[in-house]
Amino acid sequence: MEKPPIVPHNAVIFLVLPVIALIVVPTYGYMVGFGLFEWGLGVLFGMLTLHGISAGYHRLWAHKTYQAHAAVRLFYAIWGGCALQNSILHWASDHRNHHKFVDDRDQDPYAASRGFWFSHIGWILRDYKSGKDDFSNVKDLVRDPIVMWQHKYYIHIVLATNIALPLLIGYLFGAALEAFLIAGLLRLVVIHHCTFFINSLAHMWGSRPFSDKNTARDNTILALVTFGEGYHNYHHAFQGDYRNGVRWWHFDPSKWIIKTLSWVGLTSRLKQASQLHIEKATLAVQYNQALRKAERLHESDRWNQHLEERYAQFVLALEEWATFKQEWYKSKKNELIATLERAELKQRYAGLKQNVKLQRQEWHLLTAQLAAA
Q1: CA distance 185 to 22
Q2: CB distance 290 to 304 below 8 Å
Q3: What pLDDT score was predicted for residue 303?
Q4: Nearest in space to 211 (alpha carbons), one of 121, 304, 113, 283
Q5: Residues 302/370, Cβ–Cβ less than 8 Å
Q6: Residue 246 contacts by C-beta under 8 Å, 6 or more apart in sequence?
Q7: Could you tell me the mean pLDDT of each successive run of 10 residues in the chain, 373 residues long?
């Protein structure tokens, strides 16, 4: 089968530039050397571009998980553009198709089912049918003047942020070429592959605690180099959530920044999945894994019955607690509710919460017994 034609400008950007960076930067470093200023500037540019892609291109525009002030949108449009991963319009359209057709070899633009090379960079290098421009799924973004401004002047933004700005800052500090090589060239190549790892490695390496319906995986190491994007299994399960790292200990700087900006009114309407849906999704994955394990055992019917009963009891406890939780929060805001009635509600809420804890313990005990069988 004949392969689609190579896209020349993409081949130069994603194949030639890395080779130049790998030759020129070490050679210059060995012969002349780089200082802390250039490395610091490179890290700063890297953080800004990563955040522009993560919080801007991805969570703000592709998934509409929150709303942002025009100043924030302009900031993300510029620094997301600095990442040289196409305009917001192109990027969001591709990404929405990725979620709609995930792992479909013919319709997912960077389907991991086609292998590491294709999902990492191969899909960009050739004019594949699955990656054809189709803005029918981003009509909402066409109405955003900042998105359209960036789309129109994308090349200007790329040149200004990747070449002119590093050179200017470097010139002001007496290190124009050094600043360009580190903050411009090397940073660009590193950020490309860090973010591309989400399309490739994050669909091949890691855990699937929230959904086993597709190849997306949670990977803490990738989260560290992508501003929190590595929690990819959670993201595919709950793509409307502004958080990727849902646990408090998850490394997700984009989540923290978006939340912080909401405190001063620069972001708003932050969407997040309910704890009930998250718990039920996690439990469903564990239940399916346990059923597959039970099928291989001698007394599979007995194990299946135990699992089904315990699973149903756990789900019921979660739903009762979540339903009453809403009623409890409403009662806390209602000043007309008598003190005695509020105390009874509080006691009921505590009882349901304790039941969830007990059901969780019983479930873990049963799955531990199954694992040891």
Answers
A1: 10
A2: no
A3: 86
A4: 283
A5: no
A6: 231, 234, 238, 273, 278
A7: 85 93 96 96 97 98 98 98 97 97 95 96 92 90 97 98 98 96 97 97 96 96 96 98 95 98 98 94 92 84 88 89 75 58 75 87 87 78
Q: Are 182 and 25 in contact (CB under 8 A)?
A: yes
Residue that has been written with the tokens 């989400």 in this structure: 198
**C-alpha to C-alpha distances, 275 to 134, 283, 361, nearest whole angstrom:** 35, 12, 18
H helix runs in the chain, sequence order: 8-11, 17-31, 36-51, 70-82, 88-100, 116-117, 123-125, 139-142, 145-152, 154-159, 165-172, 176-179, 187-199, 220-224, 232-237, 253-263, 275-295, 300-333, 339-372
For the chain, what is the radius of gyration of the CA atoms? 25
- Structure confidence at residue 93 (pLDDT): 96
- 319: CB partners within 8 A, 6+ apart: 276
| pTM to 2 decimal places | 0.91
Cα distance between residue 102 and residue 198, in whole Å: 13
The candidate with the shortest Cα–Cα distance to 161, out of 82, 56, 51, is: 82
Tell me the sheet residues that pair with 67.
268
* pLDDT attached to residue 331: 62
Tokens in use for 15? 């194949």
